[in-house]
Design goal:
Helix content is 21%, strand content 38%. The strands form two sheets. Strands 2-3-1-6-5-4 form a six-stranded antiparallel sheet, sandwiched between helices. By secondary structure, the chain is of the alpha+beta class. It has helices at residues 19-25, 27-30, 66-80, 104-107, 161-172, 204-215, and strands at 5-15, 35-41, 49-61, 91-93, 96-101, 114-123, 148-157, 180-187, 190-200, 224-226, 229-235, 243-253. The chain folds into two domains: 5-126, 2-Layer Sandwich (50s Ribosomal Protein L5, Chain: A); 148-256, Alpha-Beta Plaits (2-Layer Sandwich). The protein is built from six helices and twelve strands.
Length: 263
């Protein structure tokens, strides 16, 4: 990992009628470097909004301290957007660090119709855009593969739903490309964001192991089993004043899937 280049992913949410208009709104960001890797209609979550993601190389390289390099990459990019934009708090959980700019008035000069901007730095590249692994040998015709539904819960210390959702999306993107937030609920002093990560053609045990590996954290609890579902949890050693305090993952066979999430 030492010596690796970092990749920046900049996701802009803008008010737009269609993809052409959304891409045009991001022209100022593209002049800073990078290319559009994804554009999607997010009007089901926010009416009249499109999300555009730009990939750009970072001038930072990983030295001994991976977290410090990731955070510097995010701050350097935000500073390059203009003097009027203060750098908000950067959250860092290697292999990624991120921050959210959610002041439309200050963003509008660079990003017309801006709702908010998510800036992420990744070491090793965004998992959603890495080269796919070689295909496994085909199974015999008629063989049934297990299908598992994977659910994620992200507890965030914040009083703003938008900030909690962005934190959750950043975590979910390490596991699945198209995770969908199903609800946000208060849980004590935190907001608990529930994300449906979709289905995988694998067993619950393997799906859970793969998700934990993608998230790249240590300190997960032992897997607990209940009626065929597997659950594991992670909690911050010291509760931060803001940011992610806990995670929960549940893998359930699709045949037994119901809308439940880890407590």
């Amino acid at each position: 990992m030492v010596g690796e280049d970092l990749e920046l992913l900049i996701t802009a949410v803008v008010a737009a009628d269609d993809e052409r208009q959304a891409r045009a709104a991001c022209a100022g960001l593209l002049r800073l470097g990078g290319r559009v890797v994804r554009a999607s209609d997010c009007s089901d979550e926010e009416p009249g909004c499109w999300s555009v993601t730009i990939s750009s190389p970072s001038g930072e390289r990983v030295a001994r301290n991976v977290a410090a390099a990731l955070a510097r990459a995010v701050r350097s990019y935000v500073r390059g957007l203009g003097d009027d934009l203060p750098v908000p708090r950067v959250s860092c959980e290697p292999p990624t660090a991120w921050t959210v700019l959610d002041d439309p008035d200050r963003l509008d000069g660079l990003l017309p119709g801006a709702e908010r901007l998510l800036v992420e730095a990744w070491v090793g590249g965004d998992p959603a855009h890495r080269e796919e692994a070689p295909a496994e040998p085909a199974e015999p015709v008629g063989a049934e593969r297990p299908t598992t539904r994977l659910l994620l819960r992200v507890d965030v210390e914040t009083d703003r739903v938008e900030r909690a959702e962005w934190q959750a999306r950043a975590v979910a993107s390490r596991v699945a490309r198209n995770g969908k937030i199903t609800r946000v609920a208060p849980l004590g002093h935190v907001l608990s964001v529930h994300v449906d990560l979709g289905s995988a053609e694998t067993s619950a045990e393997v799906a859970l192991q793969d998700a934990v590996t993608s998230l790249g954290r240590s300190g997960w609890t032992s897997v607990e089993w209940s009626e065929g579902s597997a659950t594991t949890r992670w909690s911050a050693a010291a509760v931060p004043p803001s940011g992610i305090t806990a995670l929960g993952l549940t893998a359930t066979p699709a045949s037994a899937f119901v809308w439940t999430v880890p407590d």
